[in-house]
Amino acid sequence: MAREHKTYVFIYLPGGTAAVPAGLFTHYPDDGIGRFAYGNRYLERPNALPVDPVSLPLGGTPRDVATNGGLYGAFRDSSPDYWGRLVFAAEARMPPEAMNEVDYLLRANASRIGCLDFRASLDQGEPVSGPPGFQSLAGLLDAASDLAAGKQVRHDLLRLLEQGSSVGGARPKCTVELDETLWIAKFPAKDDTVNFPMVEYATMTLARICGISVPAVRIVTVGGRDVLLVKRFDRQKARSGYQRFGFLSALSLMEWDERDRAQWSYPVLADRMRATILAQRAQTVELFRRMLFNVLCRNTDDHPRNHGFLWGKRATALSPAYDIVPTLARSGVTTEFALSMSLGDQGREASLANALSMHARFGLTRSAAELLIDDMRKCVGQWERHFTACGVSEANREALRASFAIS
Ligand SMILES: Nc1ncnc2c1ncn2[C@@H]1O[C@H](COP(=O)(O)OP(=O)(O)OP(=O)(O)O)[C@@H](O)[C@H]1O
Ligand SMILES: [Mg+2]
């Protein structure tokens, strides 16, 4: 008989800091299919929200999901990725691949992204775990580097790391609390050839100077190691805890599959934004800006889980930008490169001409798009002065020069 794993799906509704049950999710790992059904009592709530506004609207008959191994987009976005899975599997003393999707959904704790929660039973209470405090960072860094090196990690440190490791992504990280605010702390990784936390800090603040909406970021140095703190945009402190806002990656908004790169496209994403939930032109112009910036700083890791949307509290809108980091290029080898998503009529080719080619899809006339490109190019052209002011070393700037060659 085919295996099935079940979990109750809870949601934090706007204004609340305790979740309410919304329905039951059944995952069939052998077929890579998932099935969700809303609970009747949830549907009777006047303030009910969909648990996934794209693939599970209220009022319809929920469809089974077969993309991304049988996870609805919003569920996938609230589950850990490579890094979190490594942590949870270490805690469970199992190899990461021996755990199933529902195990990961159930283990991911209060630090998960967005406004959903997954529980083994209806009467299971709120996740008790608090996020690690900022003063724990030194221990968290040690635990993360031991884990990445395949060493045994002290159990108390592993527990602490686990409290904040439900967020997605591949790099080592942990949610921490500082000044009554939650931050994603992004750590150095063992194979880094440059100081990536510092480089990401400099790139994100450069993006802000270039007019892109970026969360608050800080660099902190812990025992000689630089750590990037990125303020979480899906949480806000309230008197009784943290309020949570819904999050959907572009992958989920588009119902794309993680393995189907050929579909990923900025103009197609812009079409969906215009046609459905994001009627405002400013939104597609912001997407255009982010696409240009990725070309100009050679951020080739701009896959559709690195673009996101916030929903639930206000109208759905692009989240602040995140995970913008130049990919290192070897100077003199080639100046041509590709982004992860298609930009224009030359597909994924990372050139400004290609970015310009489908300007109308982003709500821009040709001359408006040309002006924007000109502005962005000038703005990113100051990168080296800005990176120096941020404290990026001469050796690191040298390593990055070829990544900014297009500007
Ligand atoms: N400021 C933020 N607030 C809330 N959620 C965020 C924020 N920044 C990132 N996220 C979420 O956390 C996930 C991981 O963050 P990020 O992309 O920075 O990590 P990463 O390890 O560098 O990712 P990748 O695997 O793409 O290299 C994102 O996919 C997004 O869902
Ligand atoms: Mg990412």
- Low-confidence stretches are none
Question: How far is the first residue's CA from the last residue's CA?
Answer: 58 Å
Rounded to an integer, what's the Rg over CA atoms?
21 Å
Number of domains: 3
Structure description:
The protein has 407 residues and is of the alpha+beta class. It folds into 3 domains: 5-119, no CATH class; 134-231, Phosphorylase Kinase, domain 1, CATH 3.30.200.120; 246-404, Phosphatidylinositol 3-kinase Catalytic Subunit, Chain A, Domain 5 (Orthogonal Bundle), CATH 1.10.1070. Helices cover 32% and strands 17% of the residues. A hairpin with an 8-residue loop joins strand 1 (5-11) and strand 2 (20-28). Helix 3 (82-92) packs across helix 6, helix 5 packs across helix 6 and helix 9 (266-275) runs antiparallel to helix 10. The longest helix is centred in the C-terminal third of the chain and has 16 residues, at 281-296. Magnesium ion is lined by residues 169, 306, 323.
